[in-house]
User: Fold these one by one.
Assistant:
Number 1:
Amino acid sequence: MSMCMDQWISQIEQWFHQQPVEQIYVAVAVLALTVVLFVLFSLLKTSKSNTIVLAGLNGSGKTILFYQLRDGSPHQGTVTSMEPNDGTFVLHSELGKKGKIKPVHLVDVPGHSRLKPKLDEFLPNAAGLIFVVDALDFLPNCRPAAEYLYDILTKSSVVKRRIPVLILCNKTDKVTAHSKEFIRKQLEKEIDKLRTSRNAISTADISDEFMLGVPGEPFTLEQCRNKVTVAEASGLTGEVSQVEQFIREHVKP
Amino acid sequence: MLEQLLIFTRGGLILWSSCRGLGNALKGSPIDALIRSCLLEERSAETSFAHDAYTLKWAFHNELGLVFVAVYQRILHLLYVDDLLAAVRREFAEIYDPKRTSYDDFDETFRQLQKEAEARAEEMKKSKQAGRAPAVPGKKQGAGGAAQRDAKQKGNGAGGGGSGKDDGDGDGDSGKGRWLANGNGNGQEKGARERSHAPPGSVVVKGKENGGPQAGAFDVNKLQKLRSKGGKKSDNTKPASKGGEPKKIVKKNRVWDDSPSESRLDFTDPVDERGEGIVEAVAADQGESMMDKEEDLSSESEAEEEDEEVEGAKPGAKKKGWFTSMFQSIAGNAIIEKSDLQPALKALKDRLMTKNVAEEIAEKLCESVAASLEGKKLGSFTRISSTVQTAMEEALLRILTPKRSIDILREVHAAKEHGKPYVIVFVGVNGVGKSTNLAKVAYWLLQHNISVMLAACDTFRSGAVEQLRTHARRLQIPIFEKGYEKDPAVVAREAIQEASRNKSDVVLVDTAGRMQDNEPLMRALSKLINLNSPDLVLFVGEALVGNDAVDQLSKFNQKLADLSTVPNARLIDGILLTKFDTIDDKVGAALSMVYISGAPVMFVGCGQSYTDLKKLNVKSIVKTLLK
């Protein structure tokens, strides 16, 4: 065996010496170039993420929004999601535009409370988060929605990377839907209450590591370290221009 | 009649629905209810789900990530639904394309499939019936039926089973015959309706009762055409499933400097040692309740130990399977079949059972995991056992993650704003530690400046009131008691009234322990709960319990529902798990209880002093369960 190996090695060495020196240099150069390019490419890819995450409670209309943004139609309606929908695509409204447009990676995280841990998988490389609220059926869902939003706003991955958050009041095509100012006020009020009760509980299991807002003052969304804005949309009728604006603000075309 | 058949992706997009004109005209959106309370709770191993007036059945296509749900009225027992679902699943998988979102051309195929399935069910009924009637015609007819079925499947044209059907009708005994006639009537009605829809060229199954020669002659040509069309389309079907990469456990660095905090080790309490004579001594200064403490240190070291153990124990096994699994994973990512899953699941079930998970629940969980994996493609460089393990880990995490908020302080503050006390009722079987843990909860609440009142509603066991009075005196909180032999429901009501008079924020109601089978006591409990409508019904269960956990919780829930006089009864909202310090790594009771009741574990009692109350660390429980 060892004899055989030695033979092989000597043969390779011979062949190596036979080659012209220039060729070896060229080979090394090509190798180095590819490695550098690869590293650069991967760096670029991670530094400018194009992931936008859709989050929110069950039945707030995330999946409809997802398909509205992708295909421009709600198809035949949706049911409760069991798995995240994600896709990388150019927004439907921009399909007609000329020139090269950077596609968006959109993720729709299911709202069922059992599936909330899934959100953590997508947050680390998110460029923005859209928190969808049902403006029609807001009051009964106000407290759970505020709790979810609180959890998101205090997550270390959101605070540290200052992921911008858009609170999107969905279903505004309906007459009885609440206005975005009202929803904003209610959410702020609820979060203000949560601040006191959550900080009283241990941090052992709940992973909020950051205190929200300024102590002693009533909480407003401006106090967050990341940018939080409020907008309106209607997934069913396709009125999603404000969402597209938000996405394009944070994922440059 | 089938109300609706729906095909949607696991992401939630409806791809096709059998009655699009009416939209989702079903009352109370049963499909959302199915997904939320059945499929997402790892109960998909069950065969059907009832919601309001509907029964739902479902089938998965895991490779393509599709779900098929059939909805029908609960009073009808449709025999063909399973059959139909399987057929639809088969046919739809052929034309499915991840990029396509509307499948209008599936209507025709579905209509054919439904007819086929209905006819087959009819035959089954008849052949069963004929078995009871004189033997000879039964046999003949059975053969006829089989022939017909074959004929249909091969597409050779009309079978000769029509006459056999008529015989069956005649021979049937009266009781069954009527039902059958009924079914036939339905079929005919349907046939007629369908004919009005169908294009003029197609032949419709109306001959069932007439027994004409074209009985069973489906529009086979059309079906074939459709199939071939589907075949063409399915060429560009791509597998949608991604190989689930197993998560690697990241090893954490051990932190040596911090010593565990004093009060955790210090279980002795000077007050305790002085004995019962000096109960007046105030125990309100025992330090922070453990609900408020970080337990990062302990969990970290635990995690590390775990890792080390795993590494220490496994290398032999790992090395042995390495080459074969490597070969398998390179040779091609095979589709997972049920038989492949069996050994891995068996091992997993055994492991869960050694962790004291009730057998019934371990079984159900494994079936549900199998249902979610069957038909999926095995990712390259993964083994079945690790795929199963990952799926199970996800499932466990999903089950144990609380569905409702467990932030009690928030709820207490909300109740305070409304100006009424927050009422917590502690229920459970005998001797699990209701009163002890009630005192711990009281201590924890007191530390957050919430005024607490105890209500001694255990008017059954002697000494219970005195026990609670002792706790009240040590914690210096008011107690409401009315002695023994009183109706606990009334005592509780008076206690709540008293609390709203003297502005207490929380009322903790202690009840007598009762076995789940004790009807009179359960009735009393149901009365107590319905009369006072507490904000939280906390089931106290000990972590030592094994298979009985299922029985306890399900019976408690059931009795509370059955024995109540109001239509929508209160059930158990949360679980307090006691004696958690005694069980080492056999943490299965937590899983059993949460799975069976759907309620989250709100507190964990883990010692003898007031501070020994903790929150459940879901991740560490999952890790321990799968160790």
Note: The mean pLDDT of chain B is 74.
Number 2:
Amino acid sequence: MKTTHAALAEKFIANTAQTDWHDRTLWLVRQKRDKAVHTLPEWEILREWASQIKNHTLSQLSEYLSEFEQKAKANGIVVHWAADAEEHNRIIYKIIRKHNIQNIVKSKSMLTEECQLNKYLEQKGIEVVDTDLGERIVQLRKEPPSHIVLPAIHLKKQEVSETFHRYLKTEKGNHDPQYLTEAARQHLRTKFIESQLAITGVNFAVAETGGFVICTNEGNADMGAHIAAVHIACMGIEKIIPKARHLAVFLRLLARSATGQPITTYSSHFQQPGPGQELHIVIVDNGRSKHLGRKDFRNSLKCIRCAACFNTCPVYRKSGGYSYHSSITGPLGAILNPNTDMKASADLPFASTLCGSCSHVCPVKIDIHEQLWKWRQVIVAEGYVSRKKKTGMKIISFVLSRPSFYRFSGKAGRWIMRTFPFLLKNKLNPWFHSREMPEAPKQSFRDWYLKHKP
Amino acid sequence: MLSKEKILQVVAANQPEFVPLPEMNHGCLIEYSDLCAQFKTASENVGATVQRINDIQVLKEELKKEAEAGRFIINTIAGLGTINKQATLLPAARLNQLEKVYIKGTIGVAENAAVWVPESNMLNRLLPFIAEHLVLLLEKKNIVTTLHEAYQRIDISTAGFGVFIAGPSKTADIEQSLVTGAHGARSTKVYILE
């Protein structure tokens, strides 16, 4: 099924009330971020430090990855390397088979979404229970997350209530968030206690210590990791930071940028396996090393997944995560996805107004809107835009580069709009779908200016 | 180990030219005139409660009262009385009924209410998360201004596990309505010992 951002967005905005709610709510999150940011006079300096630390890390990534592996092994952690999603999934499956594991809990990890781990394991008859509340909601509904930090932000509480009534036997029609959260707590407590394997993501992996940090508000990563006999943490190669002291910079930026909190409730530092436990780390490439070689785009590997760029984006807020038809949605997805599948993601860099708001809120200073613009050029050069767009652009380019022809076209256009308005006010004109055509002025600005010029 | 070599080889070939680490001069960082007051405000903002005490006796009595009432409580702080080591090692299914746990934090961070708890203090990694209610004891002299200062004072490589805890477990995954008590402790109370 070939679907584009524009077509999927059209579906999303069909429900006006919900679209407005989505827009307003995410803007509220952006405002919370602003409020938190303004309490720190050093905010811009922190952003600069974070950006430079990440730039440095990318420039020494192979060295830091080797250092991290060596230190992690010395800590008693088993380290695996996965070239792609398939290998990542296979490694995890092998560990499951080795221990004959039945009960698996997983906390939020966008990497496992990217690798489609749940689907892979399901095909082998293995069920994974997502434990982040938002992720559990969308998992029960058989939907993917629509936002990397707020997975169920596209849903209203009535929808959550219906889902919980069906699967968790909650009261029909009770959509009090407190009640529903309590039901999820009880339901997932049972899953935690039975769990034999906990799968988690990684927020930061520290080369200097060979340990890693996971940030959650709910405590689900810890409930899983400290109960199950086996813990597997999955990380992309770009999660490395050089020193423990650098955690201060990133932890100060992450939650403030994401939700406006000064820090997440839990920032858990895993250094060694717990008593009697097995701790594994899977280090995943899946296109990242290639991305590192793209000078104009490598910057996006600095991302710490706060989603500030989502919450501020006027297109994301009004089109919803599903319009991006990929596991990483929003402006971030629009610059990451073309790297792995340019053809399938060719529409995403165009789903932006290039207003630059994303770049301004990014805590690690990724030039998101510039990358969107640069991807458009790469995508056009590679021939991945529709013929309609290409022809239109060619015509516009032809007209705009010939001043006298441009003036003639303007005059002709205004005359046509006045004399034969139906030629433009019809279904064939995409501009007219949801807009009125402007009144055609009698003269152009240029003509007016020439007449009135002092 | 084929993938490891392949990944490292491509990364090494594609990584940009050396960029130095930034000089991080801490002179620009925020300062608070009253660290303890700031810590209290930050804690309340993240949903924790704070009580300042002059004497550890207050906590000892609270603990004694709870024990007498037959509540399932675990104390991990030596200064508060005997530690029931056996209880800390109970299986998760049993700890699931744990009402409250008392743990000592080593550092408190004024800017964000985070309290550092190393594994050696919690005895069992699961305790601060599985308990219905969490009580943290913090000495006033151990409150620092920012996370930068906190990381100067702690060495994360010495603990097998350690966690910064700021407030109770919470979520806003349903319509952005804030609910406390998602999966971890429903409440976090911090006693600051003067």
Note: The domain at 31-193 of chain B is CATH 3.40.50.10420 (Rossmann fold).
